[in-house]
Structures are given as C-alpha cells and as structure tokens.
Amino acid sequence: MIMETSNSPVTPRAPLNKGKVTGQKPPLKLCEIWAIRTRLQMSSNLRELALFNLAIDSKLRACDLTRLCVRDVCQGTRVSIRAMVIQQKTHRPVQFEITEQTRSSLEGMDRPSRIALVGCSVSESDSRLGPPVHTSVRQARTSLDRVHRLR
C-alpha cells in the first residue's frame, strides 16, 4: 500500500524583525539627554527624573540601578557626593560621582518618595510602616520606555 503525502503549499512568513535595526542601540547624545531632562522637569515627575539622572551619572546596568538603596545614595538626610555599589554581574565595587543636578532632584523628593525611588529602606529597622516599597525591573523598564518615547 502506498502512503499518500499531501503537497500543500507552504506560505512563506516574513521575519518579525524585517526592516528593523537589531543589536545594541547607540548611546544617547548630549542634546537628547538634556531634552529628556527638560521634558521630565516640565512634567514634574521627580521620581523618573531622579532615576534618569542616577542612571546617567552612574552608568550602571538596569539590575544594579534597581537594587540601589537609599543608604547607598544618602548619608542621613543629605545626598552623598560619591556613591559606591557592588555590581551584581561582576561582584566588583564601582564608585561614581553624583552630580549637583542629580543631588538637587533627589533632595527635592520627600523621604517616602526617595525610598520608593531606589529599592530599600534607610535602615533595616524601618519596618514600622510595613515592608519597604521596591522598584522592580519592570517598573524601571516602564520608566525607561516612557523616557525613550520622549526622545
């Protein structure tokens, strides 16, 4: 007995990324950074402005940026001039300078907003009000998507 095979025509599918540039995106130009900062200041979104400024100052990866704690950036009620963070991927300490513009955007926020900005509470005994509010990678991604739309 001979088996019949169907010779139905296969419709070719176009690739999903056809016509799109793949790979690493080029870094932001200085004029684009200032345009994004200006738009964030005009929209008075202090949290995203401070997060964007910290990202530009530190040049940290997104996973390290979302793990920043208030105690990494602040000393008491003042924002530090320099901060040191241990990178998650390389496990090496990285020191970066916090510019005056970033410090002013962080100081412009009240304490609860500052805690929500960066990930963990000022001290481990700050649990009277419940667990600290974390910035997840998804929240940071949404923030960055909004910033890229401003470009």
UniProtKB/TrEMBL annotation:
SUPFAM superfamilies: DNA breaking-rejoining enzymes (SSF56349). Residues 1-10 have a biased composition (Polar residues). InterPro entries: DNA_brk_join_enz. One of its GO terms (molecular function) is DNA binding. Residues 1-23 are annotated as: Disordered. It comes from the Bacteria. This is Truncated site-specific recombinase. It comes from Cupriavidus necator (strain ATCC 17699 / DSM 428 / KCTC 22496 / NCIMB 10442 / H16 / Stanier 337) (Ralstonia eutropha).
